[in-house]
From TrEMBL:
<comment type="similarity">
    <text>Belongs to the universal ribosomal protein uL6 family.</text>
</comment>
<dbReference type="Pfam" id="PF00347">
    <property type="entry name" value="Ribosomal_L6"/>
</dbReference>
<feature type="domain" description="Large ribosomal subunit protein uL6 alpha-beta">
    <location>
        <begin position="12"/>
        <end position="88"/>
    </location>
</feature>
<dbReference type="InterPro" id="IPR019906">
    <property type="entry name" value="Ribosomal_uL6_bac-type"/>
</dbReference>
<dbReference type="GO" id="GO:0005840">
    <property type="term" value="C:ribosome"/>
</dbReference>
<dbReference type="InterPro" id="IPR036789">
    <property type="entry name" value="Ribosomal_uL6-like_a/b-dom_sf"/>
</dbReference>
<dbReference type="InterPro" id="IPR000702">
    <property type="entry name" value="Ribosomal_uL6-like"/>
</dbReference>
<protein>
    <recommendedName>
        <fullName>Large ribosomal subunit protein uL6 alpha-beta domain-containing protein</fullName>
    </recommendedName>
</protein>
<dbReference type="GO" id="GO:1990904">
    <property type="term" value="C:ribonucleoprotein complex"/>
</dbReference>
<dbReference type="GO" id="GO:0003735">
    <property type="term" value="F:structural constituent of ribosome"/>
</dbReference>
<keyword id="KW-0689">Ribosomal protein</keyword>
<dbReference type="InterPro" id="IPR020040">
    <property type="entry name" value="Ribosomal_uL6_a/b-dom"/>
</dbReference>
<dbReference type="GO" id="GO:0019843">
    <property type="term" value="F:rRNA binding"/>
</dbReference>
<dbReference type="GO" id="GO:0006412">
    <property type="term" value="P:translation"/>
</dbReference>
<keyword id="KW-0687">Ribonucleoprotein</keyword>
<dbReference type="InterPro" id="IPR002358">
    <property type="entry name" value="Ribosomal_uL6_CS"/>
</dbReference>
Length: 102
């Protein structure tokens, strides 16, 4: 399968990890929940993991690649106060200031 479209996701957070199994057909995510999040990859998409915190979704159908990347991102969307979560590599998260104490 020739990979024509790519979508890179960055996982930010202490202990947050991703790993691909079954030749890119299964994605396992550790996102700070009490369980691992297990996602099955659609037939037209392949998944690769780099350094436990960068996930690459690739395939020949642009809509399916981007839809699966959005599904992965939706498991733990980026948080605006600490910047933790799953975000696209080219995405910029504007951090909020937080509460001030007296």
């Amino acid at each position: 399968m020739e990979a024509k479209y790519f979508r890179f996701l960055k996982i930010v957070g202490v202990g947050y990890k991703a790993r691909a199994e079954a030749a890119g057909r299964l994605l396992l995510l550790k996102l700070g929940y009490s369980h691992e999040v297990e996602l099955t990859v659609p037939p037209a998409v392949r998944v690769f993991c780099f350094k436990n915190n960068v996930v690459c979704c690739t395939g020949i159908d642009k809509q399916r690649v981007h839809q699966f990347a959005a599904t992965v991102r939706n498991c733990k969307p980026p948080e605006v106060y600490k910047g933790k979560g799953i975000m696209y590599v080219d995405e910029v998260i504007k951090k909020k200031q937080g509460k001030k104490s007296k």
